[in-house]
Design a protein that fits this description.
It is a single chain. The protein is built from 9 helices and no strands. It has helices at 12-33, 37-62, 78-98, 105-108, 118-137, 141-147, 149-156, 159-176, 185-210. It is globular.
Length: 224
């Protein structure tokens, strides 16, 4: 019988590994690239979201029969990666807002649709952050057990909504905003990562359609 893939417990050691790595990456990007702290946290957040979303499709396509590194199985890191995506995204938001008098959301949103797309881009980012916080709160064992697996899985499916919102938010500031110096290597890398996520998700979905349907009554295994 295949090993059960349902992992609802966040691991402190993994949180420390992901957290320390995320902060180290933020420092590295900040000082190696010369970008601001808000941009640095934003880029780390995007990378964490990318890693979170590719694990599921990759595991569906590969379906390893044996446990392997890092630390047993990669899918068991999705909870920690997702939570730290939210933490670094929240750090990005706080740094941006700290530079605005009174933390004015209205000014940050530019009248929602004002500022030549600036307000709309920030609105998309804010919606993504709110959704990410909700998903992170529901990523802990007791809350998952309270919600039930099916309800929890439905909520977690919004991770892809978050991804597309973040991509649109980032695309504006990389390619259309007049506040920066235009796209850099991260901007083009971001497009490549978006294509990879879409391609893997599509391939995983196609493979699922081709697989034999589970026998009724058989206990389902979950990937988290």
């Amino acid at each position: 019988m295949a090993a059960k893939l349902f992992d609802t417990k966040n691991n402190l050691v993994k949180h420390l590994v992901v957290g320390v790595s995320s902060l180290a990456a933020a420092f590295l990007i900040r000082y190696a690239s010369g970008v601001s702290w808000s941009v640095s946290f934003a880029r780390v957040s995007f990378l964490l979201l990318f890693m979170t979303l590719i694990i599921g499709p990759v595991m569906r396509l590969v379906k390893p029969s044996k446990l392997f590194t890092p630390l047993k199985t990669p899918w068991t890191w999705r909870g920690e990666l997702g939570i730290w995506f939210t933490v670094t995204g929240l750090a990005h938001f706080c740094v941006v807002m700290s530079g605005r008098p009174g933390w004015s959301l209205l000014k940050a949103l530019g009248g929602f649709f004002g500022g030549g797309g600036y307000g709309l881009a920030n609105l998309l980012g804010l919606i993504a952050l709110v959704l990410a916080i909700i998903l992170s709160i529901t990523s802990f064992h007791r809350i998952i057990m309270f919600l039930g697996i099916e309800s929890w899985k439905w909520l977690q499916s919004f991770a892809y909504v978050i991804f597309y919102l973040v991509v649109l938010h980032s695309l504006y500031f990389q390619f259309f905003s007049t506040y920066g110096e235009g796209p850099d290597m991260f901007g083009y890398s971001m497009i490549l990562m978006a294509v990879v996520v879409i391609a893997l998700q599509t391939a995983g979905f196609i493979k699922t359609l081709k697989e034999p349907k589970a026998v009724s009554g058989k206990k389902e295994e979950y990937q988290v």
